[in-house]
Amino acid sequence: MTTESNVLLKLLSNIREDGAFSDLEVRCESSLFQVHRCIVCPQSIFFDRAMKSQFQKVESKEIVIYDDPFIIAKMFDFLYRADYDDSVEMSLDDVTHPQVTQQQNHIEGEQAPATVELAHRHNAKVYVVADKYVIEELKNLSRRKLESRLKSQWSDTEFIPLIEYVYGSASPPQSDLRQVISTFAVQHLATLKSSAAFHEVRRQYPDFVHDLSTIMMERVMQLEKQLRPTFGWNHLS
Fold it and tell me: Where is the BTB domain (predicted)?
């Protein structure tokens, strides 16, 4: 990244933190995010349409949304910094900054839910928010972060709730994360097959079973193709 880009990101990070010159307030539960239309709207079709909507009062500078403020803070971090922190040990203040107004009853210093959920679960939630507010680059980033976390911090126990979340009603049915989850499930079948919770999830989520079996069939076909020359199967149709 060039020096000029670093300077720009630093500038955007600063105005993200102090809310200087903000012209849009986004209320989410007890938190009030003071942001800038020129930064948020070009990156999010949802906010762009909300500001242009004929149902939006001309003088209105507030949008009310209903999501997890902790995850929404990460969304705004991305819009200003092209990245977000998915580390586990973070407090709500670490991601909301002073631009979340003091009048709002957000709980300063309260431990974020990351203390009881691994970071890969948060990345899945960020993906859902990015899909909801139509922020394609954030969807891509959260997917990459999830893949990275699953590679470096694998846990059979924590993977089961992730399957339930990605294939549950909270996630979009066409989520790219389904491919990620089913692929990692195939890679770790050797240990997952001994988990009663895993087999229960297979019974509860037929879409997961479909994706899982599809990947397994593709791998069997690839293996068969590789073995044909070795075992003289080339003449077989």
Answer: 22-92
